[in-house]
Amino acid sequence: MNSSNDSGHRTARVVIIGGVSGCGKSTVGKALAEYLGWPFIEGDTFHSEANIAKMRRGEALGDNDRKPWLESLHNEIIHYLDCGISAVLACSALKASYRKILRGGEVNVSFVFLSCSRESLHRRLTTRQGHFLGAELLDSQLATFEPANDILLIDSEQAVETLVESIADWLAYSGSECDET
Fold first, then answer.
1. According to the model, what pLDDT value does residue 1 have?
2. Using one digit for the tens of pLDDT, what is the confidence trace for 108-133?
3. pLDDT digits 0-9 by tens, 146-165
4. What CATH superfamily classification does 7-180 receive?
5. What is the pTM of this model?
């Protein structure tokens, strides 16, 4: 796992849109990236074939399954920061230990978590097409989530445009605080 804190990182930032499957990470992440003019990174594309096969079978991933995936995502974050490019990443990042791997020692990595009712999540998971993770893993994901004080938790049952504007406002506010230190 690489980590770098050079001065170029002060101008670049990576925002991780997290939450359980079906909360809208990809939809909101893509919309936020477009709104900000930043690249979008789909965390699911970094999963190994073995992990995808396991989730398709309805089996939850363990920490050992996730570690190489999280390290790959961390390296992607470092790549963007090293290039001075801000980006938006969609990634569940449910546990504090996962967020620690993703962030590494970087200060310009922020987390936004989308939440909504279990009923809405279940409905979304049972009606969406073409995704490897189904509703059978919802309860294990909900049980895995570890809240923290350093993340923005936002209700994803709002309109995408409202979510994007709220997140962008939070980023502007939290970015100005970071610039002062």
1. 52
2. 999 999 988 777 776 767 665 554 55
3. 888 888 999 988 999 999 99
4. P-loop containing nucleotide triphosphate hydrolases (3.40.50.300)
5. 0.83
What are the extents of the domains in the chain? 7-180
Residues, the chain: 181
33, 94 Cβ separation under 8 angstroms: no
Q: Which H or E run contains 70? A: helix 63-82
Contacts 24+ apart (CB under 8 A), 142-149: 142/20, 142/118, 144/94, 144/95, 145/19, 145/20, 145/94, 145/95, 145/113, 146/94, 146/95, 146/96, 147/113, 148/96, 148/99, 148/111
d(CA 94, CA 89): 14
Count Cα neighbours of 107 within 13 Å in the Cβ-side half-sphere: 13
